Amino acid sequence: MLLLLALVSVVLAHPSGENFDGDQVFRVHVEHEDQINLIHELANAKELDFWKPDSATLIKPHSTVDFHVKAEDTAVVKDFLEQNEFLYEVLMSNMKNVLEAQFDSHTRASGHSYTKYNSWETIEAWTQQVASENPDLVSRSVIGTTFEGRNLYVLKVGKSKAKKPAVFMDCGFHAREWISPAFCQWFVREAVRTYGTESQMTELLNELDFYVLPVLNIDGYVYTWTKSRMWRKTRSTRAGNSCVGVDPNRNFNAGWCEAGASRSPCSDTYCGPAAESEKETKALADFIRNNLSSIKAYLTIHSYSQLILYPYSYDYKLPKNHEELDTLAKGAAKELATLYGTKYTYGPGATTIYPAAGGSDDWAYDQGVKYSFTFELRDTGYYGFLLPESQIKATCEETMLAVKYIVSYIREHLY
Ligand SMILES: [Zn+2]
């Protein structure tokens, strides 16, 4: 009940005019169970918005925890951390400044731009435009609708040819991870821009189709633009329940709701009343099931932490081809770093971060898609979800290298 009340107050306290003035983001070093319990205690007393890990229940010993604290609670939180002798840093001393700094690209022209964050309206118009301007390479289809009735688009990118293998890539699972949709748009742009001139991309588009889903959790994304920038989940509601939304990346039928997911509707990692309860995850899963004979790879783009993860996350078990996946992830991380030296970590989800059941990567893998990866893009917490627009270009450029590396390998190892 306390949590429920707390969440209701989040929603009420962050109307469209939310400004985060005085809000802070803390990074706390946690060594043992006692300290984890203390953080739980703090989270029960004060409303903490966990950035990393995704919720208080996922904190591991010997790790760091990032969370956002509202202005009026910062003094109490600081006192608590000091009295209990925690090692901590204040990552953001005033979130309002960082929030404003997101829009620092200096290209604030209205309309679509690949180097700024685009609203859903703008992205939707762009999906139509990029398809109509590149009819020989891009086609758009609607694979379902969201809870609030928005169209879920998939762009099929590739030179038409019979019986092509395909790669599925999605962005925008978690609403506040704005760099993710930016990457899907960038990917499509690079495909159409470099086809016919750049040999690797030309070959990839000749031999493979890419299904790109630019934003999965559109309702949530819209909500982060209009109401609450830090929203993560979908926006579905259910009779008799005042908390809104489900974590779409805990909603797949892969060890559903077993580990690292919450059964509490108010939690940010709520697994939902059933697997695929959300219209968005159901549409995605249906699309993959219907195209399983062609889909050879599944890539899902999140932020932040700079990670390349592969199955499993719902269990500590390793996938059959884990050595191959590990080599691929390692190669992709190395390739990514060649451009700006950005350091990525890689490995199976459960051991690299923490067990988390119901994720789309594990689900796709268990459907038979043997190359399945989750990307966690920039950064490692300095800006967190508020990565400035001026980093979109570099982030997307380096990520392209990793994606092309993985996909080129898959093209040579079709199954
Ligand atoms: Zn995410």
From TrEMBL:
It catalyses: Preferential release of a C-terminal lysine or arginine amino acid. One of its GO terms (biological process) is proteolysis. It is found in: Secreted; Zymogen granule lumen. One of its GO terms (molecular function) is metallocarboxypeptidase activity. PROSITE patterns: CARBOXYPEPT_ZN_1 (PS00132), CARBOXYPEPT_ZN_2 (PS00133), PEPTIDASE_M14 (PS52035). GO terms for cellular component: cytoplasmic vesicle; extracellular space. The keyword Protease applies. Gene3D superfamilies: Metallocarboxypeptidase-like, Zn peptidases. Its EC number is 3.4.17.2. InterPro entries: CARBOXYPEPT_ZN_1, CARBOXYPEPT_ZN_2, CPB_M14_CPD, M14A-like_propep, M14A_act_pep, Peptidase_M14. It is an enzyme of class 3 (hydrolase). Pfam families: Peptidase_M14, Propep_M14. Belongs to the peptidase M14 family. This is Carboxypeptidase B. The gene is Cpb1.
